């Protein structure tokens, strides 16, 4: 399915990443999105941080 980006900054960043990594535009987008999703999956919420700190403090 095609994607159309009408944002000059998004276009420039994608092209810069693709050039830096020697990738096609499509490959650059796929890699960037996978990395962004993975980072967000691994983010600890404030409640998780508080629970972890309470657990660590009770030892």
Question: Describe it for me?
Answer:
This protein has one domain (8-57). Helix content is 73%, strand content 0%. It contains 3 helices and no strands. The model has no long low-confidence stretch (mean pLDDT 93).
List the helices and strands and how they pair.
Elements: H1 8-21, H2 25-41, H3 46-57
Helix pairs in contact: 1-2
What's the shape? elongated
Q: What are the segments in which pLDDT stays under 50 over at least 5 consecutive residues?
A: none
Gyration radius, in Å: 18 Å
For the record, give the distance between the C-alpha atoms at the N and C termini, rounded to a whole number: 53 Å
Number of domains: 1
The biggest beta sheet is recorded as: none
- Which strand-content bin applies to the residues? under 5%
Helix-strand string: HHH
Overall SS class: mainly alpha
Tally of DSSP β-strands: 0
**Percent helix among the residues?**
over 70%
How would you state the average pLDDT, rounded?
Answer: 93
Number of helices: 3
């Amino acid at each position: 399915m095609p994607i159309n980006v009408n944002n000059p900054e998004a276009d420039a960043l994608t092209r810069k990443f693709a050039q830096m990594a020697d990738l096609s535009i499509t490959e650059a987008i796929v890699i960037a999105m996978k990395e962004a999703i993975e980072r967000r999956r691994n983010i600890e919420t404030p409640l998780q941080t508080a629970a972890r700190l309470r657990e660590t403090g009770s030892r």
